[in-house]
Design goal:
Helix content: 25-40%
Number of strands: 19
Structural class: alpha+beta
Length: 402
Amino acid sequence: MDDKTIISHYDLSNPHQNSDSYSATIVFHPNFSCIGATTPLPTDGKSIKLSRNYPDFFHNDFSQEIVIGDIYVSRKPLTICLKDTICEVDLHAESTPVCINNEIIYPNKHYRFNIANRGLLIDFNRRVFIYIHKKNLFGDTKQTLGMLGISDEVQSIRDSILKVADTDIPVLIRGESGIGKELVAQAIHQNSHRNDEKFVPVNVAAIAESLIIAELFGVKKGAFTGATETRLGFFQQSHKGTLFLDEIGDARDDLQVALLRALETGEIRPVGANENTNIDIRFIAATDACLEEKLRDKDFRNPLFQRLAGYEIWLAPLRERQVDIGLLLAHFIREYITKLECKELLNADNPKLVTFWIHFFYHALNFSWPGNIRQLRNIVQQVIIHNRGNDNPSLPVHLIKL
């Protein structure tokens, strides 16, 4: 089935409509395999009905049609109509309960929501959650590049990776802590002509100040007491490959000077060596620091910034990607359930278990996730461990406020 069949209710000749498209995405379903499936929505004033049996939802590869299908969701539809950024909503008189953005929706009453910023989280009978969100449906690559998500923010990152990967231009990845900057760096490397060579990740902030130069540039035998053999530094280890310098915003001044010289000349000098060594490296750096403030305060050298930022990729925080939260949760839940061999926690025939996951996803979808994907993954791990062999699943006490 081709994409034009799936989005046939769009006018492909109308560029304004295409650039302001919306989708409905399943962000929770008792059957985890449905999570992340999405369907485009008309924005020309035509209405669409959401119920147990329609519309059809699709995953990224469009290989399978999915309907909500849950017997606790009514066949009597919720009707929505999008006009620009306004979503008009009407509920069938015989429908099962529906909440939108935590507001109860009553039959025989007309509702209007502005979805320009937040979008709409639709709760069908506390069983299935659908998120209505802005989605650019055109020009999307079908490659995931190892990154989960269907949001425009994730798609923009994928597009940026593919644009810059086949060059040797240095890349600076920016975004909050825990957002997946190393994953983006790996994707750039894997899609470059250097993908058969090493990808060497280095957390600049994690290496002791007294060792950082030696760790990066290497040590010649006899350079100092205890240097009993020549040791290659991270630069030499990544020769012909990619060197990823994480937390670059925390690099102290003497390291900044050394990095700038290596970037400008393509040469390094190991500690104790008398001659320079040529290097052929793709540089990727990342930081969660505000480099503009550091530049203003003279804590970061502008020449180094200009060298590193040959191309910048900004990563949106998870709180701005609500549509991706359900997909990430389902992925990490399945990952840890497999790793910890407790598949009973995915038994959709256990009412207590289904109720627990509904509760967990509901609160997770409304949580701001200040620690981003790292925090989400950590909490999933704790929840799975806590409920191994538990017939009455619950949250660990310290996570009750989630």
